[in-house]
Design a protein that fits this description.
320 residues; Immunoglobulin-like; 4-stranded antiparallel sheet; 4-stranded mixed sheet; binds calcium ion
Length: 320
């Protein structure tokens, strides 16, 4: 602005000098024409913001000047009367516009100015709203859960999560951006339209989700397993066989014995089988089954027991 005023004053002064000094002769002037000069303020334009830049023009002879423009971006308008370039670039106009030619003419000579304008992205125009994604299936009552949403912002903005319309036991850790909570048996049911919002400070994105709170019984039961090693028994001796039983869920297990000889018994408390066969029981007892149950599923092992009569000790033979 300062520069513009200075130029205008100078132009007036020269016009005055010409008017005062050179008007007394009508003889054809041999003086050569001075070409006009021009300059523009160097300014950067911003998307969605009004751009305006003054053009300074000057002609040493005080000739009437006209401005014209070529190769300008569509949004850039020349106001020749007010010696001003103006316009409002839109989103998509970001970048460098070069080789713009501004021409000033005094009717005889003209001067060209080659310049360029950079259009910067505007704050508002280029914010990418953040995205949020969350995979929540179901929760079992009594168990602590943590859900970490996938949040992303293409601009790298700092993101803030907020939760709305959530059950009271579902909480948010805004520092670390995750959800957590433990539902109680009285919370069983489906909670719909829970809103998770992520904001980058300018735009926000919302995700609606639901959580089903299931009773613990709805878990997939792991059936128990059983292993038993039984070889043979000597008649007259007490034996105890302890099966290896296991349940991945930690369920309480109960044993059941079937197709067993009467002398083979089960101790359900201690989960073992025991018994003493007699000499008359000598033989093979086949296909005895021992079953373990976790209350829902069972596992079974079938086995044979051979009862062997003890070999009588050989009689002492005395030699004479
Ligand atoms: Ca001139
Ligand atoms: Ca953003
Ligand atoms: Ca089980």
């Amino acid at each position: 602005m300062k520069k513009q005023i200075k130029i205008t004053i100078t132009a007036l002064l020269l016009q005055c000098l010409v008017a005062c000094g050179g008007d007394n002769s009508s003889e054809p002037s041999q003086q050569t024409n001075n070409a006009p000069i021009l300059s523009v303020e160097f300014t950067e334009a911003v998307v969605s913001e009004t751009f305006s830049s003054a053009i300074s023009i000057f002609d040493a002879d005080g000739d009437a000047l006209t401005l014209s423009i070529e190769n300008q971006p569509q949004w850039l308008i020349l106001d020749g009367e007010n010696q001003r370039l103006s316009g409002t670039p839109q989103a998509g106009d970001e970048g460098l516009f070069s080789d713009i030619i501004l021409t000033v003419s005094d009717g005889t000579d003209s001067t060209e100015l080659l310049f360029e304008i950079t259009v910067l992205p505007g704050e508002m125009a280029t914010n990418q709203p953040p995205t949020v994604d969350l995979v929540v299936t179901s929760m079992l009552v009594g168990q602590y859960y943590q859900f970490t949403p996938q949040i992303y912002d293409a601009d790298g903005d700092k993101l803030t999560l907020t939760l709305a319309n959530a059950p009271s036991w579902l909480l948010i850790d805004s520092e670390q951006n995750f959800l957590y909570g433990t539902a109680q048996p009285s919370d069983e049911g489906i909670y719909k339209d829970i809103r998770l919002m992520v904001s980058d400070g300018t735009d926000s994105t919302e995700l609606l989700f639901e959580i089903a709170v299931l009773p613990i019984e709805n878990t997939t039961n792991q059936p128990p397993t059983i292993e038993l090693v039984v070889t043979s028994m000597l008649a007259g001796q007490y034996y105890q066989f302890i099966p290896q039983i296991y349940d991945a869920d930690g369920d309480k297990l109960t044993l059941n014995l079937a197709n067993a000889p009467s002398w083979l018994l089960i101790d359900s408390e201690q989960s073992l089988i025991y018994g003493t066969a007699q000499d008359i029981d000598e033989g093979i007892f086949e296909n005895i089954s021992l079953t373990v149950s976790d209350g829902e599923n069972t596992a079974q092992v079938n086995f044979d027991i051979e009862v062997i009569a003890p070999v009588p000790l050989p009689a002492m033979i005395s030699c004479e």
